[in-house]
Every structure is written in structure tokens, then in C-alpha cells.
Amino acid sequence: MNRRSKLNTLLALTASLYLGFATPALAQNPTVIKLGWTTSDGAQDPYAAGARAFQSAVERETRGSVQVQLFPNRQLGDERQMLEGMRFGTVDAGIITNAVIAQLEPAFSVNDLPFLFANEAQAHKVLDGSVGAELAKRLSTKGIVVLGYMEGGFRNMINNKRPVNTPGDVTGVKYRVMQNPVFIDMFNSMGGSAIPMAWGETFTAVQQGTIDGLEIPLAVIDANKYFEVTKFLSLTNHTYSMIGLVISKRSLDKLTPEQRTAVTNAAKSATAIQRQVSLADAKATIGKLEKNGMKINAVADVGAFRKSVGPVYEKFRKSDAGPLLEQVLAAVK
Predict the structure, then answer these.
(1) Where are the beta strands (DSSP E) in 72-135?
(2) What is the pLDDT of residues 225-256, one digit of tens each?
């Protein structure tokens, strides 16, 4: 049995345990948490994997007294809309891209700084430690509670102009970026043309040639079929993509103390499972994308890219979240 099969078996087992322990009374009148995300519900989509793991863990931990309903594909709105809904209690929960959370709480931008993390383990160390705790504290003042720091995988560049081997290859290429200053500054510092754009508009924009490409995790390329509209995939690994499992404080406060504890514990176990699934899928996805016609290249000299984005770090150091960057750098050293 391969690693992916083992993880799927684990998810199935947790679901069956929930069904075995749920009492009829609890199952008849459960509290419902509606969980949304903007990407697909595909088997390899990291957002979907996190949602399914959380659903299974919550229903197991609460013995059915809390149920999680899943809403993929922007059914609850774009990510910024979902965050605003969580602030006011009209949306329960979501799995949201870090850069969009940073639009609400700018300190989260520290996670998106380019070429900051060399591997997933470094990112986990930072997010599961004092930096992650500080970020969660800041977001809680906006009425949103962090339940877990899930993993979208490292982000890479795809486009229809040319492979990216050096920063110069980014020059003159129109890249869709998230509506976040770090991503805008990153691509502009490399000479590219950063085009902020909502996720729901991006596929059509690439297809019609309004933009040349975008930057995106491997699993999201595959799950959303970007291999159909882009030619080149360059494994730049420029940003570790944290995706936050977050819930409205108002929705969380509606639960009993026992349910809140169970949901919090469920989120921790679901986050651990989702990270394993995401990493396994990312490694398998490269071969799939190549079979689907994408021309794939690795980047030999990461140092040249780090040098080119130096101004992004200097600008961040001058922000209110500058001290957080020093904590991150100390942790990854």
C-alpha cells in the first residue's frame, strides 16, 4: 500500500469511527458548520483535502453533535468575501490562502516573503511556534479564529511566454498575482508585470491571453486544469503557500465549551493529515502535469532570485510586522 493509499485509509477509518460512536439523539439535531473554499473538490486539491480531513475529524471528535458541510468552488464567495462574512458571522468557516488573510491582517504577509523557506519542515516549525501564535492572536482581534495552518505546497510559475531559469526570464511577462503587496512587489522586483486579480477571473484571463501566466502550487495547477491553458511550468518554489483553516469567532462561540474543545482538537489532527496528503500529492503531480503536455524545468541558481527580491525584504522590515520577520529568520537558521 503506497503512502497516498494509507492516508486515504486513515481518513476512511476516522469517518467510520464517527458513524459508530454518534448517538441517535446527537445525530438528529446537529450543529452545522458551513466550510467554504474557492478551488475544486478534486481528490488532489490541497484545500479539498483539508476540508475533508476537518469534516471527518470534527464529526468523530464531537460524536456527531457538530457536522461540517462542504462548499467548494466559490459557493460561499471569493476568499475576501468569505473572510468578511466570518467577521460578521454570516459565513462560518473557510480554508483561505495566506495572501488573502494578509489583506485583513498584514502581519500574515511574512509567510509569503519570497524564497524564505527552504522546505516544508522549516515552514511548519515557524507556523506551529511563537510566530504562528502571534499571527493567530492578531487575527482574533478581527473576529476570526485560526484553527490550523494547512499546506498548499510551494508556489511555482506557469506561463505561455518562456521557461523561467533566471530572474531575467520574468521580465516583461504579465503574471496574475493575488491582491497582496508582497506578491505585487515580488514580481515587479524581478522585472515582471504583476496583475492583481481575483481567483475566479484567472483561468479565463489566461485562456484569452489577457495575462501570460500566474504563480500557483502544483496541486492547484492539476486540480483546476491549468495545464490546458499554459505551456511552461518552472519549479521556482518561490513561496511556501500556507492555507489557513479559519472560523468565525461568532460561529465558534455558538458551540458548547465541550464542542469548542473537540473542534479545536479535530483541527489539529486534520492539519497534520492534510500536510501529509499535500506533500505526497505534490510529488506525484509533477509527472502528471508533464504527461498532460506541460514543459517543466527546475531552477538551478536560487541565489540569483533571492538577490533580485532583496527590496521586498527591506520594505517589509520597515512595516509594523518587521520584528516578526526577524523571528522567522532566526527560526529557519
Answers:
(1) 93-97
(2) 999 999 999 999 999 999 999 999 999 999 99
Cβ-based burial of 253 (10 A; exposed 0-12, middle 13-18, buried ≥19): exposed
**Three cell numbers written together for 163:** 521557461
CB burial of residue 193 (10 Å; 0-12, 13-18, 19+): middle
From CA 140, how far away is CA 134, in angstroms rounded? 10
- First and final C-alpha spacing in the chain: 36
Question: Diameter of the chain by CA atoms?
Answer: 64
Strands 93-97 and 144-159: unpaired
Extract the C-alpha cell encoding 53. 480531513
Nearest Cα to Cα of residue 274 among 186, 100, 153, 112: 153
Cβ atoms within 10 Å, residue 93? 30
**Run of H or E residues at 20:** helix 3-21
Q: Residue 152 and residue 220: Cα distance in Å, rounded? A: 8
Q: Backbone phi, then psi, for 77, in 5-degree steps?
A: 110, 175
| Structural domains of the chain in order of their starting residue, each with its CATH number | 3-326 (3.40.190.170)
Strands 295-298 and 174-177: unpaired
Q: What is the pLDDT of residues 90-140, one digit of tens each?
A: 999 999 999 999 999 999 999 999 999 999 999 999 999 999 999 999 999
User: What is the model's pTM?
Assistant: 0.84
pLDDT digits (tens, 9 = 90+) for 249-295: 999 999 999 999 999 999 999 999 999 998 888 888 999 999 999 99
